[in-house]
Amino acid sequence: MTNTPEQSQLGKASAYTDQYDPTLLFPIPRAGKRAEIGIADIPPFFGADLWTAFEVSWLNLRGKPQVALVHFTIPCESPNIVESKSFKLYLNSFNNTRFGDASEVQARLRADISEAVWRGAPHPATVGVKLIAPELFDQEPVHELDGLSLDRLDVECTRYQPAPDLLKAQFDEAPVTEVLTSNLLKSNCLVTGQPDWGSVQIRYTGPQIDQEGLLQYIVSFRNHNEFHEQCVERIFMDLWTRCKPIKLMVYARYTRRGGLDINPLRTSHPHALPANVRTARQ
Question: Is residue 231 among the annotated active site residues?
Fold first, then answer.
């Protein structure tokens, strides 16, 4: 049976369980939304979803609470995403559960989330899980996305649903390499309609993309209902098909809700993942 967003706990009253329960995780297949943007089989991109959990706590064997930050790396090749509210409920199920040490917590997180995102895959793999202890919190940096800001442009914006026809490129000129950013990305949760605020970085080599049209296109997501991962894949595919770059990378960092942020990256060529560094708004 295929899970759908409507079957999840999103938008519903939920009782928080404080005893470890991996069954709370709710995987949703990526395939349905990918089909909507023309991906029928193998996607033309690589990448991962970089998650940060800021509200992670458990008890040690003497009952004393422990806290940590956790970075998760979920490959985009996995057949499923995990619905974010179920992720939060799952993490809260650790709150009153005793574990021997942080490595045991890390192992549970890796096993459970790997099972959820790779469920149904013929060759399941694992996700990356990095626990950061309190004594290392001060080493967590804040850094804005590098690149030329599109937000400097004084453009008129009138469209607030994805409008790929706004994308244009100079096909009759020499290719360029650019890194462009914007803090004006906003979309809404697919189920609840709650706002999702983000920043986006677009790195490409190819025909020069019209910057005004690109900014208007980013703004056009403002009233669009879709999960973070799906928005980034839609942006990637629209740029890939309309502007025909030689290389393309799209990276978005969304502000956190409920102690979780989700930061998808999609790239046309194998590329080292960036460090999971939060921006000021996160």
Answer: no
